[in-house]
Amino acid sequence: MTELPLREPTFLILTALAAGPQHGYGIMTDVAQISGGRVRLRAGTLYAALNRLDGDRLVEVDREEIVDARLRRYYRLTPEGARRLQQEVERMRSTTTVAAQRLRLLGGTQ
Amino acid sequence: MDDRCRTSDADRDRAAALLRDHFAAGRLNAAELDERLAKALNAKTFGELHRVLADLPERWPERLERAYRWLLACYPAAYRRVHEEEMLAVLMTAAPDGKRWPGMAEAADLTWGAVRVRCQPSRSSAEPGWRDALAVVSILLPLVVFITTAVPVAGVLPGLLHGGPNLYSNMFPLWLLNQFTGPLALLALSLLRLQRIATRAAVALLIGLAYLAYLAALSYLAGGADPGAVSLIAGGPYILLALGLQMAAVTASPGRRRGLQLVTWKHVALTVIAAVAVAITSYPWTLVVIPVICAAMALTSSLGRWLLVLLAIALGPYVAVPYTYIVGWGPHMRLYVASVMRTGALGQLSQACVLAAVFLGVFLIAACRESLRSRKLAPPAR
């Protein structure tokens, strides 16, 4: 059964975690960097998405640390999450390949 | 923090870090930095720390932290137990230096995040009581709306059959059509398979607005000031409220299947009696029947208590809306419509207030009972 396509913030969070376990603030800065500053995640959106991903078993807690007297929790991608991300990348790649081909043809005829 | 409150190592380190930041920004010279650092690292109370930072821009990010904690209170208690400190750490790290209040965008983002978290299914198998109640409401609400729109029809039909005078004679077909489109709209909404909360809200709003426009068109066709036309429109906002509640019930609950598992014949019977009583809505009925039903639902279980609240939202406005049906079953059929302008506005209002007080009273008693019972069983919170 094909699942619904991932929303962009969710996709970016999974991409950020694909590099390795990260904590909340790390994910926020990584997402901003991956999207070239276009997507600025806020804490509310981030944690709602993480809660959903955790419920779907796509991410899980890696470890907890105390830094600067504050709790920091690290999240990592589960194998299921990696598979889901891969599936999404394939879906987008096939679509973008077709679009690029057609644009090239379009550019050729003009 | 009170000035006399004692500081921890972490608090002193944080103050020292702040002082170094101010030095880097050029607000202190090296000598001042050393002097203040010595005082900060030896400070025993918050008063001493405050004096060290007194003339520097942000005394302590407590105000910001307190504001964030207040916003984070929107999140469910179980979620907060696990995630509050972590989210606070992220929020405070992301906040630029000298920030005093969370901005509007940030507050909105946190509040909407809380709504989304509340609507997402939790990992643990035990669902909070209100979500189960919403599942049952998604089953019962179409039934309630159907009854409250069908009873007036049932009241009118015998009179029609006997050929008696009818207030709606020239637009009876329109009125009949109007009575049933409400329930149909509700059923349609609950059967739609929509994923996102925002989509559901948008669809509910559209259906509601379309329904209002349709009512306005009907009343225009019927001829404006006709008392029958007044009753056509008066039911409109009530249907909108029911639409909104049904949307919430289907979105935020574990689903209709769970509702079917949970609903018992007792719930159905009590709801049907309440709906019929409200649809008839003559003074002695509601003041006697409704409190008994409230007590029966609220005092038996937590599910009953939440059901009471939600169904009160659905049925309440129907009682407070300023028109009355008095349906007689004798040979003299009467359908009586009173508008706010003419008579009984104060009577209607007082009746609505008494009923609201009864609902609230029963709910509060049941809530206190629940909390007392759970406090006896559960260990004290940390």
What does this structure look like?
The complex is a heterodimer of chains A (110) and B (382). Chain A has 110 residues and is α+β, with helices and mostly antiparallel strands. Chain A has 4 helices and 3 strands. Chain A has a 3-stranded antiparallel β-sheet with strand order 1-3-2. In chain A, a hairpin with a 2-residue loop joins strand 2 and strand 3. In chain A, helix 1 crosses helix 2 and helix 1 crosses helix 4. The N and C termini of chain A lie far apart (41 Å). Chain B is an all-alpha fold and 382 residues long. Chain B folds into 2 domains: 111 residues, no CATH class; 249 residues, no CATH class. Chain B is built from 16 helices and no strands. Chain B starts with 8 loop residues before the first helix and ends in a 5-residue tail after the last helix. Classes of the chains: A alpha+beta (110), B mainly alpha (382). At the A-B interface, helix 2, helix 3 and strand 3 of A face helix 1, helix 5 and helix 6 of B.
List keywords for this structure.
heterodimer, A: 110 residues, alpha+beta, Arc Repressor Mutant, subunit A, three-stranded antiparallel beta sheet, 3 strands, 60% helix, 17% strand, elongated, B: 382 residues, mainly alpha, 0% strand
